[in-house]
Amino acid sequence: KIVMVTSGTKMGEQCPFDPYKELLTYITRLGQVSGSCRFTAAEELTLLDHFASGLTRDHMDLRNRRNFLVEFLKSAESDEGKTPGDAGAAELGNKPFEVAVEHPPLRLPKVDYDAVCDKSCVTSDDNLIKKFGTLNYSRPRDGKDGKESEITGIGAMKSLHKWLRHGLTLRGGRDALGFLFFFELMTSRISFRVLPQDSPYNWGCVLMRYLPSKEFTKKELTMSILRILDFNPRIAPDCPKFEDTRRFKMALVFRGQNIVQSLLSRTKEYFNKCLDRNEIVWPREDLAHYTPPDKIQMAGARDLAAENRLLMAPRATDSACEQKVFSRVSSSGYGTKVVVTPQNIAAFGNLPLSSVNLKKFMIARSREQRGDPLISEDLQFKVDKHAITKSTVANEMLERIRADKKLYASEQNTCRAPELTGFTLTNIRKYTLVQVDKATVIAKTLLKSLIALRAQDLKTVTQTVRMTLSLVNHVNPSRPKPEAPPEEHANYRKRLAFLLSRHHGQESKIGISLLVCSLLSSQGYADLNRVNPFLTPVQLRTIKDLTIFLMLTVNRVGQAARSIVCTQKLINVLKKRRKYTAEEEEPGFTMPTGAAGKARAADKDFV
Q1: How many helical (H) and strand (E) elements, i.e. helices and strands, does the chain have?
Q2: Fewest Cβ atoms closer than 10 Å to its Cβ: which of 154, 220, 271, 585?
Q3: Helix axis angle, 433-472 relative to 512-520, nearest 10°?
Q4: How far are the Cα atoms of 65, 144, 162, 196, 353 from residue 150, in angstroms, in the given order?
Q5: How confident is the model over 472-520, as pLDDT tens digits?
Q6: Which sign, positive or negative, has the C-alpha torsion 578, 579, 581, 583?
Q7: What is the rounded distance in angstroms from the CA atom of residue 97 to the CA atom of residue 23?
Q8: CA nearest to 97, candidates 273, 259, 255, 301
Q9: How many other C-beta atoms lie within 10 A of the C-beta of residue 148?
Q10: pLDDT at position 225 over 80
Q11: How far apart are CA 174 and CA 131, in angstroms?
Q12: For position 116, what pLDDT does the model report?
């Protein structure tokens, strides 16, 4: 964000970090970026375009992301999929699109486990089985009690970590596992599960890939047996089981012991029967390697944005709204109640401070009534004869200035400025002591009304902020009844997922800034709905009216504060004036009544 704000400036050129690295980190970890810190698609594309000239082959992820955002925004701006009428302008387009994708160079394996076809187990001679060498095998035990039982959960993860760290081999290795361990896994004799629904057979197939390549590429009896079980899961459950019938059980299984020879012979016989029934599938040695596509077909922008919330960020679309309608509203909940009456709307639309009975204190007079000279419609300077004014542009500028001056003079000469009734400089100079005291009482009464109004407005601002923020961020967490339609239960799960995402920061909350910006946006409702997709049309209208009410009330708080300051100054002047008789005049005596009147009588445009 610092780069985007300072781009094109000297400060941007002096950023002490690598923008390409920061962008890459942002894109690759977008799922961990807080919702309030995310870029919109347009902002992200602006950044990538700014650094597009420096994107090389090494920045493949950034180039792919830029290609996607370009096509995504084109789809969003298209008319396809939009509903007709005014509501369609707030929707994203839904035109499907293709994205060109760059891929890193393919790294093909030197030896492919799945491309080795070994039929040794069905073609080997019985004499080869008799000559089978020694094995080192100790059936894994649960670390809790040391018994041969189920290995699950954390115990299974610890065992898996230890085996992979020590290395797996067909002959046993450091942990005395080897061929018989894989065989018992794939025949489900060993109950090894990390998760309760795991399959020991699948774990055996996975761990086979961790054997040294010199072992799984060599065509020999034990590897051939395991490979057939790997490629034929349907025949694995009925495969003969390994039974250790020795009186003295040891980890080392010697050459010539009947338990291994018997297992190999029975397995060979079983595989031959399966082969006769055409139940064995052999690996293909001519496997075609995967080639990634150059283009990927994507759904429309609206569907993508609904499915992937990472494409959304809390921003207003624009500031192109010409007007908003302010309606009466009554909203209660979240520990407070806010009511906007027609009287409030009338006051905000005319004189915000009218609730303090300004008509009783104010009078409006024109310049002529005040005895002030009228403002001339002519410019106070003449530059027509200057050489630089001979151009067409200069003449047009002078004409606009003359027109502006004429309009300003007309408005000032005809408008009436508000003043406090009976508080003009001429009136106060004629005041007796009794009149000064009476004027002071009037000013203090007005001051008291202004202070009360400001205090009430401050309380209203606090309540309205709490109410508006609670309402705009509300998501109903209530579970529907069991007999409710499936659509309601599906929507309930979506709401829970949204609340969980918001809890850990992936979804952002709507703040006052976005509420105000939504009033200026031509798509204000849609902007709020993108951040909180569970807001109803009624809630959106209520939020709009509460936000307008909040802004106007805050404006009146400031106006009341300025009026309080002016009224207090007037009271101080009256206190000074009381020291003098009606015939005397205080040296340097000036009255703030004009400023006080303007502050109190300021209309809805007063800021």
Answers
A1: 24, 10
A2: 154
A3: 90
A4: 47, 11, 17, 11, 80
A5: 999 999 999 999 999 999 999 999 999 998 988 888 999 999 999 999 9
A6: negative
A7: 24
A8: 301
A9: 12
A10: yes
A11: 24
A12: 81
Show the tokens assigned to 238: 């009925």
Compute, in degrees rounded to 10, the torsion defined by CA atoms 211, 215, 221, 222: -20
pLDDT in tens, 341-386: 888 888 888 888 877 776 677 777 788 877 788 888 888 888 878 8
Amino acid at site 272: N
**What are the Cα distances from residue 55, in Å, to 19, 102, 140?**
11, 13, 53
pLDDT in tens, 451-475: 999 999 999 999 999 999 999 999 9
In three-state secondary structure terms, 380 is coil
Rounded Cα distance, 482 and 479, in Å: 9
Between the alpha carbon of residue 380 and those of residues 145, 277, 389, 405, 406, the distances in Å are 103, 111, 17, 10, 12
Pairing of strands 336-340, 362-366: unpaired
Q: What percent of the chain has pLDDT over 90?
A: 24
pLDDT at 175 over 90: no
Task: Report helix angle 60-77 to 19-28, nearest 10.
Answer: 70
Per-residue pLDDT of 133-153, as tens digits, reads: 566 777 787 655 545 567 888
Buried b (16+ CB within 10 A) or exposed e, 576-598: ebeeeeeeeeeeeeebbbbbbbb
> What per-residue confidence (pLDDT) applies to 590?
47
Per-residue b/e over 319-358, b at no fewer than 16 CB within 10 Å? Answer: eeeeeeebeebebeeeebebebeeebbebbeebbbebbeb
Nearest one of 367, 353, 368, 361 to 421, comparing CA atoms: 361
- Token look-up 């082969």 returns 275
Residue type (1 letter), 459: K
Tokens of 453: 């109004």
Please give the C-alpha separations between residue 606 and each of 413, 560, 564, in angstroms, as whole numbers: 20, 11, 16
C-alpha 276/C-alpha 324 separation (Å) is 82
Exposure of 345 in the CB half-sphere (CA atoms within 13 A): 12
SS3 241: coil
> Vertex 102, ends 97 and 103: CA angle to 5°?
130
Q: Is 505 left (phi over 0), alpha (psi -120 to 50) or beta?
A: left
Please name the residues in contact with 424: beta carbons below 8 A apart, sequence gap of 6 or more. Answer: 591, 593
End-to-end CA separation in angstroms for the chain:
31
